[in-house]
Design brief:
Blueprint: E1 31-47, E2 53-69, E3 74-82, E4 96-111, E5 119-131, E6 136-138, E7 149-155, H1 162-175, E8 180-186, H2 191-200, E9 208-211, E10 216-219, H3 227-239, E11 246-256, E12 259-268, E13 283-284, E14 287-288, E15 293-298, E16 308-313, E17 323-326, E18 332-337, E19 342-352, E20 364-368, H4 386-398, H5 427-438
Parallel strand pairs: 7-8, 14-20
Antiparallel strand pairs: 1-2, 1-4, 3-12, 4-5, 6-11, 7-9, 9-10, 11-12, 13-15, 15-18, 16-17, 16-19, 19-20
Helix pairs in contact: 1-3, 4-5
């Protein structure tokens, strides 16, 4: 294919917001389109003409599916991508990006460079979501855009003008805050990229930018030096286009060995995913001692039976990490250790694999008290038993430099009252505990 080695006069394809054949497909009705799932290397193994790695270099399609979604319905699918089968078995988890793009089934004939005969059937992009492995993404409508715009950048390793276009697009993507994603179709390194440019876009020369499947385009770079401004105008025109009311979610999981699990949900006039159902307050002890882990349980269900993760607010200023995912309805149990006396409101929230999150649950008021019931109840579990004796022996003889959270519960003879410390816990206190458990069974002193 002829590469544009010289600066060429750019061309623009301008389409009206609504074509005569109804290409927008934007009324509240059943939606039909083609879902293309692109897999790209975030920082490419291939270098451009200036010796720099391409960004988001297209490796291949994980899926190309014709889909139909009734009004107010949700369509979803789960698929896998095998890097080895695609010829890229050495990919790494942290260097992949997946793009799900929905192109309208209604087409219109366009010329990528009017007068030169690069005719093709454009199918406008209506929704885009992107995610790295371990993350989820959503079709974004911020910045006044009706949808996330998708750009296919045609390039090649020996194209002298392509780096100018690449720099403009990458800078816009990184700094301008638009809902925007793009892939680079490196035609002389990637057979799938070559096929996309040749078979679908009619052997178009590079560099070329194809916006939302052909709703806008630009061949070459601006001879006046404002390639960036030309790209911005096309991106903003795409973002203002009336599109069907689509909500699209994408979740990507690394399965190891280059394999990806890709989950996609698309709602037509409806959310692609609802948040999990509301949580009840966590279940667990409401009277505990500091210095020891105490378990708390939560669970809920998800309307679409999606997997669920949970986060706890422990009421002392600490938020947990997200635990999970758990199956819908499965119980999540996590322990927490408070370090001092307090009254803490423990609560939790849940989110599904798409990032849809509940509000905080009702709170469980937990009183963290140094002494519960009687002196000698070191673990705060209500009775003095062999576990408390083991803790006492450990404090005195095995790990004497490890402090107790509450020395008062171990000061069985009250020698350090009212503010006992480590010097007040000794063999006399151990003898009192042994006598209580095994000899005289005398009751332990009550908490002060």
């Amino acid at each position: 294919m002829l590469l544009l080695a010289l600066v060429v006069v750019f061309s623009t394809v301008l389409m009206p917001c609504a074509s005569a054949n109804g290409a927008n497909n934007s009324s509240r009705a059943a939606y039909s389109g083609t879902l293309r799932v692109y897999v790209a290397e975030t920082e490419s193994r291939w270098d451009d003409d200036w010796g720099r790695p391409f960004h988001y270099a297209f490796l291949g399609f994980a899926a190309v599916d014709e889909i139909n979604i009734a009004d107010l319905e949700v369509w979803d699918t789960t698929l896998t991508w095998d890097a080895s089968a695609a010829g890229f078995g050495d990919v790494t988890e942290g260097n992949l990006t997946v793009f799900a793009v929905l192109f309208n089934s209604a087409g219109h004939i366009e010329d990528l460079r009017p007068g030169y005969g690069y005719w093709f059937t454009a199918h406008d992009g209506d929704a885009t979501a992107a995610a790295h492995p371990g993350e989820s993404g959503r079709n974004d409508t911020t910045a006044g855009f009706t949808h996330t715009v998708f750009v296919e950048e045609g390039s090649a390793t020996t194209c002298v003008n392509c780096p100018y276009v690449a720099d403009a697009l990458h800078d816009i993507h990184a700094n301008d805050g638009y809902p925007l994603h793009y892939v680079t179709l490196v035609e002389d390194r990637s057979i799938p990229a070559q096929n996309r440019l040749n078979e679908y876009y009619n052997n178009v020369p590079v560099p070329v930018g194809i916006f939302d499947g052909g709703y806008r385009s630009m061949m070459g770079r601006d001879p006046g030096g404002d390639t960036r401004g030309e790209y911005v105008s096309r991106i903003e025109a795409c973002g203002a286009r009336v599109v069907p009311p689509l909500d699209m979610l994408l979740s990507v999981t690394w399965l190891g060995g280059g394999d990806l699990e890709i989950e996609i949900g698309i709602g037509n006039g409806a959310p692609a995913s609802s948040a999990p159902n509301a949580l009840a307050a966590p279940i667990g002890d409401d009277l505990v001692s500091p210095g020891y882990g105490h378990p708390y349980q939560v669970s809920t269900t998800d309307p679409e039976s999606d997997s669920i993760s949970y986060q706890f607010d422990w009421g002392d200023g600490s938020l947990s990490e997200w635990y999970g995912p758990y199956a819908s309805g499965e119980t999540c149990t996590q322990s927490y250790e408070w370090d001092s006396e307090n009254v803490c409101d423990v609560r939790a929230k849940a989110r599904d694999v798409w990032g849809s999150t509940t509000d905080w649950s009702a709170s469980l008021a937990v009183s963290v008290e140094c002494c519960i019931g009687t002196i000698g109840n070191l673990d705060g579990l209500g009775i003095v038993d062999g576990t408390d004796l083991t803790i006492m022996i450990d404090v005195l003889f095995i790990h004497p430099t490890v402090p107790l959270a509450c020395w008062g519960t171990a000061d069985c003879d009250g020698s350090g009252a009212p503010n006992p410390g480590p010097m007040d816990v000794d063999g006399t206190d151990l003898t009192i505990m042994i006598d209580h458990l095994f000899i005289g069974m005398d009751p332990m002193p009550p908490c002060p």
